[in-house]
Structures are given as C-alpha cells and as structure tokens.
# Entry
Amino acid sequence: MEQDFLQEPEADYLKGFNEGYLLREQMPQFAETVARSLENVSSDRANGFKAGSKQYEMEREQVLRIPWLEPDKNGYDEIIPEQDMNKDDIAPDKE
# Structure
C-alpha cells in the first residue's frame, strides 16, 4: 500500500515541473503568462509546469514572510495604554 504513494513522477511531469519552477524564478511575468495559457491543457508536462510554478510561489511567500510584522493573533496589538498618569504625577527621586 505504501508503494502507491511513493511513485516516481512521470518524466514529462518532472520536466515540466522543473521548467515551471525555474522560469518562475528567473522570469516571473513570462511564467505567469505561460501558466495562464496552459490552464485548459491537461498533459503531464503542462500539469508539471503549473505545479512547479505554484511551488516556487509558495516557497517564495514563506521566505518573504516576516513573523514579527504579521498581525498578532492574541490581540495584543489592540491594547491601548492607560492615560491615567502624566509626568507631573511622578515624584522626583530624593537622595
């Protein structure tokens, strides 16, 4: 049963995948145009090209994502400090 999941991809699919990945890396606008033109094509090479292009974009988004710039999931960004105290309320240090 495990052998069903560990199949080697077809040579045409693998070639298309590599082409899509590398083309998206080197010439992103052209790769996008080619991927859009292959939307209705269902050959192994075309499917591989689309998958490779999509894979590069997913990896690129992960690299470009900076965790500390994302909105905080716990809502700590929405905490407003209290304005009860001002600088006149603080007593000077006496030595």
Summary: The chain has a mean pLDDT of 79. The chain is about 55% helix and 0% strand. The longest helix spans residues 44-64.
